[in-house]
Amino acid sequence: MRKNTPLWPAGHLPLKGGDRQEPLSSGNIHGDHARFGASGRCISISPLEGEMSGRTEGGILPEGGILAKTLLLASLILGLSQPAHAQSRPQVEQQFQSWLQTSLWPEAQKSGITRGSFDSAVAGVKLNWELPDLVPPGSAPPKDQKQSQAEFSSPGAYFSEKRLQGLAATGRTLTAKHAATLRRIETTYGVPGEIIVAIWGRESGFGSAKLPYSAIEVLATKAFMSTRKDMFRRELISALHMVDGGELSAAAMRGSWAGALGQPQFMPTSFLKYAVDFDGDGKRDIWQSVPDSLASIANYLVKSGWQKGRDWGFEVRIPAGVSCAQEGPDRAQPISQWSTTGIARVSGKPFPAADLKAQGMMLVPAGTHGPEFIVTPNFYVLKEYNNSDLYALFIGNLADRIAHGGGAFSAPWGDVGKMLRSDVLAMQKALVAKGYDVGNVDGLPGFKTRRSLGDWQAKSGLPVTCYPDASLKAKLK
Ligand SMILES: [Ca+2]
Q1: Can you tell me the distance from the alpha carbon of 209 to that of 406, in angstroms, rounded to the nearest whole number?
Q2: Which of 10, 71, 317, 468 has the fewest CB atoms inside 10 Å of its own CB, making it the most exposed?
Q3: 391: closest CA among 203, 162, 153?
Q4: Contact 364, 343 (CB under 8 A)
Q5: Residue-level pLDDT at 138
């Protein structure tokens, strides 16, 4: 292992469809990236997955701890696993150089990249053997087996109060410093400054995180030999287009260990789609320019459907007698409608008028064991940036702290999440056998699983908690 191995992955793996929640301890090694902050403290920038939408996940997590150990272990297992038909590194390097010319170049050429740009971008590029999640030629891909033995952590582990307070304090300072820019961005894009600043903080420590890797090197290595070659190959081609289009030199294209770029941590496909020049120098510079970085985040959200004038969501209290099994974007109804059932904000404030008459969705990530929410469509736009309920809640909570001096969610996250993923999987299979829709049968308690569990609990005369726990294991067969 190299000394500066990134050790702090974000705590979860956002997944397409949003019906899942990653166990914090499962060793989310998929392209996680981390770096060392300018201040010298280690800042982690989290894993890929949003790559479906061309995004990486953002995240700054507490130093060390179980996640670090898990990633370290996973990197040891995967990065240094014994190939089935071992080939020496020089042999693999040779294959890589040949692959660049005989496989990648024809595709790049076909997509319109010039030979000169291609040559300048890949000049001197070598495989980076220190990246996680590599599958060198001749070696077996990692098994998913560990996953089934992984325990869940409570969603609460995601919301480090210390981390959030730190980000909020810096976020408020920087909001004041960049007030004029943020006002201009709000006028142009309709996205509140606190949302943009919260994402900026979460993704790159407000741009303070260093970007230790050549993005071309990372993307080429992963396109050549990783568990998700096709996705990285698409990103690599996009990165070549960035060079070809004169956005910046390959050498200047610094990124995370997953190839995520600059202060907003865009993958190259997202850069091409969403990055904007907002300081007017003619360059889309999400590395050095704060205005470009902030406006690019806003543009990403607007292009993903951000609704001007609406909040992201509200922590609420669901009264006894109102079922928690009403979660999900497919059960949206006007917030006024939710309100008539007795659902109210924990703050005691009324729902804003603009939100009251528009759609809202119930969200209970820990069932009745944790904070309960009515979220707006903008919550799902935040998930487009990074497909995870907890990520979107983190951003919403951080934004509220920055804008209104808010604090932690009012209800505590219960001590849930002590089950093995394989146990949840067994419960999902039992629910499916009874005719319930649990979404993906994957051992992760996403909203469809929680909702169906709640419905089954109600039907079985059990307390309705909408979250799997050990006591239900024997009952649900
Ligand atoms: Ca610019």
Answers
A1: 25
A2: 317
A3: 203
A4: no
A5: 85
- Cβ contacts of 349 within 8 Å, gap of 6 or more: none
Q: Structural domain tally of the chain?
A: 1
The rounded Å distance from CA 46 to ligand 1 centre is 26
Nearest Cα residue to 315 out of 372, 395, 362, 258: 372
- Whether residue 60 contacts residue 44, with contact meaning beta carbons closer than 8 Å, is answered with yes
Structural domain contains residue 449: yes
List the one residue out of 342, 346, 380 whose CA is nearest residue 361.
380
Cα-to-centroid distance, 290 and ligand 1 (Å): 9
Task: Assess if residue 455 is contained within a domain.
Answer: yes
144 in a domain, yes or no?
no
Q: How far is the CA of 180 from the centre of ligand 1 (A)?
A: 16
Q: How far is the CA of 286 from the centre of ligand 1 (A)?
A: 8
Q: Kindly state whether residue 454 falls inside one of the protein's structural domains.
A: yes
Name the band, by pLDDT with cuts 50, 70 and 90, for residue 57.
Answer: very low
Name the residue with higher pLDDT: 277 or 145.
Answer: 277
By the 8 A CB rule, do 224 and 161 touch? no
> pLDDT tens digits for 435-446?
999 999 999 899
CA of 267 to the centre of ligand 1 (A): 18
Confidence of residue 146 (pLDDT cuts 50, 70, 90): low
Alpha-carbon distance 319 to 342, whole Å?
6
Q: In which domain, by residue range, is 462 found?
A: 421-473
Task: State the pTM of this model.
Answer: 0.84
Count of other CB atoms within 10 angstroms of residue 159? 20
Cα–Cα distance between 25 and 99 in angstroms, integer? 36
Q: State in Å: Cα 23 to ligand 1 middle.
A: 39
